[in-house]
Amino acid sequence: MALLGLWQWFGSSDDTHELFASYPTKVVVTGWQLITNGELTGDVIISGREFLYGFVLAIIIGIPFGILMGWYRPVEALLDPLVNFFYATPRIALLPLMIIWLGIGIKSKIAVVFLGAVFAVLINTLTGVKNLDEALLKRARSFGASDFQIFRTIALPGSVPFVLSGLRLGLGHALVGVVVGELYASTAGVGYLIAVAGNTFQTDKVMVGVLIIASMGVLFTTLFKRIENHFQSWRPQRV
User: What is the pTM of this model?
Assistant: First the structure.
């Protein structure tokens, strides 16, 4: 509350020009106007679709490949150079190629979101599988457990916290991908709203867009954190 009060005082001060700063009450009024005229709703829906499709695709690809790379050394040896190459490459640098190949529509934005999130999910899943308790694995094999039984009862539960941590990290990258993709080439979306408002010095609209993205991040991060805390008890424990 103190921070909001300070922001309100600074933004509405006569010494602060409205072109360069806004304040909470003005941001709220502007946000309500954007909602009532339908502009904000459409932008949120478009950005939400881009985020949802890209992030879900990152989960579908990242988790299985992370498990395979962590469980089977030949698969890791085959795919690790490729993963390292794309992980070290700034995804923003690939955006022009995504637009050339997929156009300026939703497909290129989904690709940027996917590339931003998939490696965080994959690498954390890989780390989780490779950091399983060796004592538990040896004990299970000594009792004649098959690879499938070990994977189902030890590997998968033991890697769940790492997977969820990867989802939390990938979430942030995915939201950045949404904004970057729409800033670069788009005709709608929250990122497009921020870009147009910034170019026309409408700081209140910029803050509305930023707060929407930040709120989505806080919401999903809190959700994943609660799920992660819930599954901490699912990890196999040494006896």
Answer: 0.82
